[in-house]
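Fig. S4 source data, part A: sequence.
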Amino acid sequence: MRIYWEGRCLSSPTGAARLWLCLVALLGLSPLGAVGASGSAFIRVNQIGYITNGPKQALLMASTPENGAIVKLVDATGSTTWSGALGPKQGAWSSAFPYVYLLDFSTADVTGAYTLQVAGPLNAASPRFRIDSGANLYRALLPNALFFYKAQRDGPNVDPSVMQRKPSHLTDAQATLYQPPVYFNGRLQGNLTPIGGPLDVTGGWFDAGDYLKFVQTASYVDAAMLFGVREHPDLLGSGAADFASEARFGLDWLLKMWDDQTQTLSYQVGIGDGNNHIVADHDVWRLPQVDDQLPVQPGDANYYIKYRPVFRAGVPGSPVSPNLAGRLSASFGLCFQLFHLSDPAYAQRCLIAGEHLLDLAQTTQVGQLTTASPHDYYPETEWRDDLELGATELYLATASGPLPPGVPHADPEYYLQLAAHWAAAYIHGPNDGTDALNLYDTSGLAHYELARILNNNGSTPALEVTHQQLLDDLKLQLDHGLRHAGSDPFNLGWGYTDGDVVPHALGLSLEANWYDALTGTTTYTIFGQHQLDFVLGANSWGSSFIVGAGTTFPECMQHQVANLSGSLDGTPPIVLGATVDGPAAASDFSGLGVPSGARRCPPAGGDPFAVFNGHSARYEDNVRSWVTVEPTDDYTVLTILAFADMVGR
């Protein structure tokens, strides 16, 4: 939430926090920095805090040199518990802030609440943060992430205590199947062609701030969520952070989108972009339950808002786009791993569906991948990683037995060979070493899973990939991130103008943890921590990019439920846990406008983050700015894995 601008207390948390922050502002100070006629300086920290025995680094950005400045760590009583000199210069951020310095206070390890203060040519003070255990810092963020997915729920089974949600899109229970729509330059061509139905496609999660539902993103999210539950059953399997139940909610919808009896895959519910005679989802700003109340007839322009089309990926039994086949089979393989003891019938249904899907994966003459309509929504190009992940999770599933009768491949060795084949294909493919774990590249997770299998199996039959090659390929991605971080004052391992900054930072943080765990080293510990710190406030804008995490976070998301049912000042009700994309290329803001029907947010005034833009990047907390503050399911799922890892530190 935005708290300070030019010495004014604009908005802040409630209670004691509000009082403290406003007093600081009235005294002419700011946790985000000091502003004066001679220049300005700002301290950027991880606003959640720092783990007691872990690395602790912050950044000072200044308009003039800070030669001779002293850094102090000050506790809640005003006592200095640590002091030191400025760290090395990190380089220039912008013409407004050509000086950025590292502040390393890793030796401070006493639990408590603190601020960092710099006394020098320009004074500065940070927001208050904690030094504490990983469990005390990060455990409370996990229920927030669950809150986000409950806010994203569609269908009859919503939680009314979450953002006053009401059942929505009940007409999806009798949906019509259509041929994939044709787009040219993002515009729908002609009409939609019905080919079958009715289908029950109720449930599932809204993909982002809109109300569309995609198999491509939902299967990725479900696979990651189920992996997290399997890895951290006590933390994520029940109670306030019951992601086991939430992941099953997602699985229920995925099983509706795949008809195993006819071998038919549907890939999308709803249509986002229309034309002059078809009103589409992105044309209307409203709460989702409004769609069910529309008095429409066939032929009406807004007919497809209420009676949402379902798009088929191909004729029954036809090859399935390999990215979808891979991540769906991964989700269903993980389903079997988690539920084969508690609900054998459900788990067996998942396993059989997953095996059938992987058998149908198109692996030759692969053209444009099936993702969404229009394809520009999610222009994925890599698919070998998805097949590696799918085969790996089916290996773990079939190895966990007992298996149902009639599975196509009961021998786990079949899937181990297949996983190694696709791992090798990825490593020798066109995109190797250029990405990190995110919606468009799942190789980091796939390599981690497969490397552990090879390590645990000891002697294995001749495979197309070795344990060392998997480690080397993970290292290749991390070293690519390190090179980026070396040229960025805030140590970000991804290009600001390369898109999807926040999920890439989270993905690199996870890959750093996994590589170090696989190798028993701390090679990437500091690099991985920098990526998480960036997401939680240690960036030039001084904002966390996760709602409810820290003192400054998005208030004005491009998210219809948040905008129409929530507050506009960061106080409850807000969509806790929602993770946004963060900074983007300055050129991406051309033509943005406040959606018709949205509550204007921020209500008035300029952009308080504008002065902090740099490196050709821009961040804006404004309902118009989908490029920076539209939350998505695939961004948020990585926070579950990252925070669960930190709880275990």
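Fig. S4 source data, part B ends here. Residues 286 and 560 are 6 Å apart (CA to CA).
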